[in-house]
UniProtKB/TrEMBL annotation:
Residues 1-49 form the Ubiquitin-like domain. It comes from the Eukaryota. Pfam families: ubiquitin. InterPro entries: Ubiquitin-like_dom, Ubiquitin-like_domsf. This is Ubiquitin-like domain-containing protein. GO terms for biological process: proteasome-mediated ubiquitin-dependent protein catabolic process. One of its GO terms (molecular function) is polyubiquitin modification-dependent protein binding. GO terms for cellular component: cytosol; nucleoplasm.
Amino acid sequence: MKVTFKTLKQQTFELELKEDDLVSDVKKKIEAEKGNEFSASSQTLIHSGMFSSFISTKA
């Protein structure tokens, strides 16, 4: 499935994700796509107003 992401600078990009991707997998895919500026360890993902630490481990 294609998922659209928006950065804090209001830039958008899409990634192809699998239904069983974990949040950690998604962060690694973002880093691979966007480079070191978006290192997996520095990302905070927010979905529907919830931080990724409060979202289940499934993306």
